[in-house]
Amino acid sequence: MFKHAIVRTVSKNFQYGLTSSKLGKPDYNKALIQHSDYIKALRKCGLKVLTLETDDRFPDSTFVEDTAVVNEDLAIIANLGATSRKGEEIEIRKVLDKFYENVESIEKPGTLDGGDVLRVEDQYFIGISQRTNKVGALQLKEILKKYGYSCILVKLKEVIHLKTGLVYIGDKNLIVSGEFIDNPLFQNYNIIKVDEDESYAANCIRVNNYVLLANGYEKLINSISSLGCKVLKLDITEFRKMDGGLSCLSLRF
Ligand code: GLY
């Protein structure tokens, strides 16, 4: 069970962050409301939420998930792959130092974004992406091995981060979209395929007894509900405009 979440309030410079979407400029005030609703949802799941102040030096800094990999044993500080995001992890390290005895880090020339790291029980999938290089992924693999976790590297073709299109919600249920659907690595799981027109919604999160899902993607919402999961739907439109999703907005541990 997760007990804590760390989030960061949306930067006033949010609109200048990295994005490949063609959905237009995010509405800052709407983003603040959506972020606040996200925090309420995490609290409903039973988490104690630590909200960090906005850091306007970093437009993408609300996407805290990329700054670290956290589990019940340790925190691993990322070395973010995008130049404009390098440095976001510095303050996160100070925060995680207060929660963890064991804190390790990815060092250059390794790069790694937390969004490329998916935990499935005691195994991790690590995406090799535009942000995470093989050196960074292998560093993470070595660190996690010391704590009893195994890792499998997955080369990404299209999506920005692994968890953009691949998410585990427990009980062998893997949410799979796009380039991951036919990948033999995932065939031993109960695959919940996400249709192309709903691919954005693949980035959902299981938080204790709930699955948080983007509002408006009824096919996936129905598929996940039919597994017996309790679903919380959230409006996340302004974060989608900046290539962000539900997982990106928090570190959960
Ligand atoms: N805008 C989120 C990212 O590209 O890292």
Describe this structure in words.
There is one protein chain. The chain has helices spanning 28-44, 88-99, 134-146, 162-165, 218-225, 237-240, and strands at 4-8, 48-52, 68-70, 75-77, 103-105, 117-120, 123-128, 150-155, 166-168, 173-177, 190-194, 205-207, 210-214, 230-234, 251-252. It starts with a strand and ends with a strand. It is built from six helices and 15 strands. The chain has a single domain (4-252), classed as 5-stranded Propeller (L-arginine/glycine Amidinotransferase, Chain A), CATH 3.75.10. It has 253 residues and is an alpha/beta fold. The chain binds glycine (GLY). Glycine is lined by residues 17-19, 60, 63, 82, 160, 242-244.
